Amino acid sequence: MLGVHHDGMIFNAIHPTSNIQHPTSNIQHSTFNIQHSIFDIRYSIFTPMLVYLTRHGQTISNADDRVAGSLDVDLSDAGRTQAERLASAVSHFTFDAVFTSQLDRTIQTVRPLLRRSGTPHVSLSELNEINLGCLEGRFRDERDPEAAAMWAQRQAALATFRPPGGESFSDLQKRVRRALATIRYIAAQGVILIVGHRNVNRALLSELLAMPLVDALEFRPRANRLVKLTDNFTQSTSPLVEVFKITDHGKLQLDNKSGRLLHECRSLG
Predict the structure, then answer these.
(1) CA gap 68, 228 in Å, rounded
(2) Strands 225-230 and 31-33
(3) Helix (H) or strand (E) segment spanning residue 108
(4) Helix (H), strand (E) at residue 52
(5) Whole-angstrom Cα distance, residue 21 to residue 15?
(6) Which residue among 122, 168, 220, 254 has the highest number of C-beta atoms inside a 10 angstrom radius?
(7) Per residue of the chain (269 residues), what is the pLDDT tens digit?
(8) Which fold is adopted by the domain 37-268?
């Protein structure tokens, strides 16, 4: 069933115009009809979905330079501060839904926002970070020479490299497409926030902007960035794309440098 968190609880999302549950059943139990503005009639069929995309806050693995991948790791103290700043930065927005992976670091990142807003929260396993197999939990520097060498191989061939027991970017992109289909089913022409992972967000940008993955991999925004874009799936014109920095004071500041980088990556395709 499709897991929807609301007021601290987890429910199934059922399409409001039918009694048939969404077919991508992979999450939790109980039944709930979403009566918020996700399906509100104020949205025209011609209105594209508006997406805000960001990455989870710093984790204890990030701070220690360990490979996390699909492992479940907590936010560091710095990451929890970043989560509070995100909540402040978007406090004036009205989101129809917030989407995360099922990994704790994304859920912990949206928790301050959900406490303030009560926005429906959907967690999708298809948005989990790429599985890096035998590299997960290991240092990527001289403390683990074997892992460091394999990490260097991966960095040299990001689009195709598959570590033993893990996923390639091609594998990741396939499940991100499934996640995006679910998001489009739920959110229609709504305004949504997706809190994902570094590699998942690259795959999402590739899909949302109709950009070749190899080009999306070139976009590496710094931490505390929020990307705003319209969903290319619903319109024929070039999507709106803006990148904002989330400041230390919990404000949004237009980041022209990252925005230019993303536009340059799009132009490669």
Answers:
(1) 26
(2) unpaired
(3) helix 104-117
(4) strand 50-55
(5) 7
(6) 122
(7) 344 544 433 333 433 333 333 333 343 333 333 333 344 434 444 467 899 999 999 999 999 999 999 999 999 999 999 999 999 999 999 999 999 999 999 999 999 999 999 999 999 999 999 999 999 999 999 999 999 999 999 999 998 999 999 999 999 999 999 999 999 999 988 999 999 999 999 999 999 988 888 888 887 766 799 999 987 665 555 567 899 999 999 999 998 776 666 665 555 44
(8) Rossmann fold (3.40.50)
Sheet holding 50-55, edge to edge: 31-33, 9-14, 3-6, 121-123, 97-100, 191-196, 50-55, 225-230, 241-246, 252-254
Residue 67: how many CB atoms within 10 A of its CB?
Answer: 21
pTM of the entire predicted model = 0.81
- From the number of C-beta atoms within 10 Å of its C-beta (0-12, 13-18, 19+), residue 47 rates as middle
- The residue written with tokens 């990490």 in the block is 151
Q: DSSP class of residue 242?
A: E
The per-residue b/e assignment along 225-261, b for 16 or more CB within 10 angstroms, e otherwise, is: bbbbbbbbeeeeeebebbbbbbeeebebeebeebbeb
82 close to 249: Cβ distance less than 8 angstroms: no
The CA-based angle 240-214-239, given to 5 degrees, is 10
User: Which residues on adjacent β-strands are paired with residue 100?
Assistant: 123, 195
Using CA atoms, how far apart are residues 35 and 20, in angstroms rounded to an integer? Answer: 16
Please state the domain extents for the chain. 37-268
